[in-house]
Amino acid sequence: xxxTLLPEPRVKTALxxxxxxxxxxxxxxINDWEICRLLPEAPFPYPxxxxxxxxxxxxxxxxxxxxxxxxxxxxxxxxxxxxxLRLDKSGMAASLGYWVARRAWGRGxxxxxxxxxxRWGLAELAIDRVVATVADDNAASLAVLRRAGxxxxxxxxxxxxxxxxxxxxxxxxxxxxEVLAFREPVDSMNEGPRPLLLVVACALIDRSGKILLARRPxxxxxxxxxxxxxxxxxxxxxxxAALVRELDEELGIAVKTADVAPFAFASHAYESFHLMMPLYxxxxxxxxxxxxxxxxxxWVDPARLEEYPMPPADRPLIPLLRDFL
Length: 325
Fold this sequence. Notes:
Distance between the termini: 50 Å
Helix content: 25-40%
Shape: elongated
Strand content: 25-35%
């Protein structure tokens, strides 16, 4: 991993899947002592053949579903580095790796690439945590991970191909799905009293007793987590009216306020706001629930609700529903 500790002006950073045609550019960027010395598996000099072989292996790993490598691009869409996630044997954790070319240091691309990689992993992979290892002398990446919300879990020593004869001191980091979903960027965190956010949710129950869950799509906050359908209240709106509106907008079903019954509520403090969420039950509606906002839907037996990753505010509602139904 490599970046710098210089100030971070606003820049546009993006990720795209690595391609075979990136080999020459990758070799040009990574064949740099200041990059290779910070990457455990990067020799120096870095051979051009190795760049081609690495991309070939990365494409094969993506097709096999075991690792996902991306090109980091700048404002002009030019490749300036790489970032990726590799799944462990359990499939529940992924290791993060990234590097940014020296010519792009000092502009914040590394930090933005890490955040984009984490958001993608949260939305697209069934993982509950991401881990990372950073060389002790890589102060920039240590700072990037800490600002992104990673927690240091220990230290150790590892071999770095470009530094033969020594075992380099390293720091180990981890970030969980819960932190990934709800941590606010450091620069925007509200250090004062948390504002109260009022939302409403509904447990739709079909004739077999199953409950409908919706999985938030990539690009939205909480992407990848399963939740009860619902949403924020509009100014002057009652919870029941908001629920009728949200179920129509999200699922295309018609529900009457008389057909929703208050059941329980969630109260949870997040870093930048406090959530208050009444949960309603509904067994009668008109229409077939369908995805109108790109969300995946699943009818879930109450006994299996715990198998679906949910926001921490929703989890206390699971045993209440299970026992009631």
